[in-house]
Every structure is written in structure tokens, then in C-alpha cells.
Amino acid sequence: MKRWSWVLALGVLVVWLGLGVLVLRGAVLPHFERSDIAFLYRARNLYTHGLPYFQLRIEYPVVLGWWMWATAWVPGPGGYLAANVLGLSLAAAGITVLVHRLRPAFHQWWTVFPLLSAFAFVNWDLLGILAMVGAWDAWTRERSAWTGVWLAVGTATKLFPVIAWPFMAYAWWRDGRRQDAGRMTVWAVAVWVALNAPEMLGAWRNWSWFWVFNFTRSSSTDLFWLLHLNHALGRLGIDGLSLFIVGGATVWALRRMAAGWGAPAATAAVMAAFFIVNKVFSPQYMLWMAASGVLAGWTPATLGLLTLGGIGDWATHFAALQIPGDIRLGAIRAARTAAVGVVAGVAARYGVLVLALMRSREPRGAREAPAPP
Predict the structure, then answer these.
(1) Shortest CA distance to 29 belongs to which of 331, 327, 320?
(2) What's the start-to-end Cα distance of the chain, in Å?
């Protein structure tokens, strides 16, 4: 039975990723074609093979910047896309293996997630998710140094894995393993500095562009935009309010851990809160929530709601705005109207997920596997 479970999971994963390739290349649904991977090949002049940060300005953390540079050496835009599809597919398979180790009874929930087709090749999020799940795997096996290494690599790839650090550290601190919490933190900081130091010292302006770019971005298609707060508060006000809410959510989750919550549940809750109030919402963030939700023990019903909402995001962001021909203007106007409903659905969905997480119960011990939903 276990063997057939693996065959089914990997078979479904191959189907979803195969469909994702067809969507990426526009072979089935040409009007749905939208990928940052394809767009940035020319927009960031990756085909010139200039060194990222030293010669090219990249608005991503350093591991991802160097990944973009390395895959661009495969000849032509088609080769570049193929290299990224292969790498991201291997990352998805690696996530499946690690999730199976962490959640042996529920690993299929990751592989049957249909939004892998829509979002796997939109951006490089699967690389960061692999590092995040790798950190959870090392943390569960009580390997504090490797936990720190994976956290550093993940943070230097997509930033979001840093959300897990305070809850991993607190869980060990709470259970009397303060030396492990300190060792994990030291390794995380040391590896992150080692990865970033060459770019920071040799190309500060281009390295810091990631932070400048995100700080100066305006609020759009997010909760604050929906509530018309982006104009009232301005960019600084939105950033400050987001930071305040995420900080409050972190304190709340730590208090819940003191009462018995597990670190995966706390991380999933704060990640959901972060995506609710982040001033820019990208639909592929659903992949992060799916992986975090499976590790946290979310119910199939909750993951199903996540899927339905993600499909709405995909249809609005990647489909209606890509319709060609004379009907483009009318389609865009219709899409803008529909976007209000979709963003409202995003906010409502995350609210439901956070409320669902408030009722979750996980074991306290770091050695214990998460309890099933």
C-alpha cells in the first residue's frame, strides 16, 4: 500500500507539472501564458551572462539571482525555460520526499494540489519552499546546524522561510534546548552573511535593490488596496501597518505555542497573516500556504478552500488580462471589476484559515511528529 501511495503521488505530481509546462509555453491555453521566469530573461538581460548584482540589477535575493544567471547559460530562451522547468520540477519532487518524511500519512495533499499546474513555473517559489521544508526536516530530526543552514539558504532565495525561525527557536528554548536554539541561529546568520557578503561589499547598490524595490512598491490587489487605505495611508503607512500586524501575529502565535501549539502551526498562521497584509499579493503564494498547511496539519477542507481561492486568483490575474484582439479593452475593464471580488475572496479565505488554525492542537515536543488534523 505504501508503494502504491508513492506511485500515485509522484504520478499526480508529474501530471500537474506537465500541465504547467503546457500552460507556460501556451500550447493549450495561449491567453493564460504569464511567467516571471520567461519575462525576466529579456527584461533583466540574462542572455548577456552578466554577473548578477555586479553587472546586472536583480530584484531578488542572492541565491535566486545566481540561479537565474546559471540557468541563462543554457542556450536560447527555450533552453533557459527548460532548465528552469527541470530545476523547479526536481524541487517539487524534493518537497514531496521531505513532506512524506515529515507527514507520512498526508504527503499526498501536497502532490494533489492542482495549483501546482498554474503556479509552479510562474516564479521560482518552489526553490524557496524546498529550502523551508528542508529546514523543517532538519529541525524535526534535531539537527540544529543544518536547520540554520537551510533557513539561511531559504531566506537568501525567497525571504519567506525566515518566518519559521522564531517559532523553531522558541520551541527548542521552551523545551530546555537553548543551546540548540542558539546554534541554529548562529549558523543561520553566518551562512546568510556568507552568501550575501560578496554582493554587499562589491555591489551594494544592486544588492540593496531588492530591499529598495520592495519598499518603494505601491499597494495593489491586496487587502489595503481593497479597503482604499493605500491612498489614505501612503506607502510608509501601509508598510508600518503591515509590520505592526505581522509583529502582533507573531507575538500571538508565540503565546499560543506556550499553551501547547506546535511550531509548524504557528508558522503557518503567521505566514497567512503576512500574506493577508502584504502590500503586494502574488497568486503563487498559494504554494507556500499549501506546503505550510500540510506540515501544520490543516484539514482537507481547509486546503480545498485554499485551492478554490487560488483558482480565482489565477483566472483573474493570468487569464482575463491576457485576452488579445479587439475585445482587450472591454476584457480588462471586466477583469478590473471582477478583481474586487477575487481580492475580497482572498482576504476572506485567509481570515477563515487563521480562524481554523486557532483551533488546531499540536504536540509540544520537538521530537514528536505533528498530530493529524
Answers:
(1) 320
(2) 21
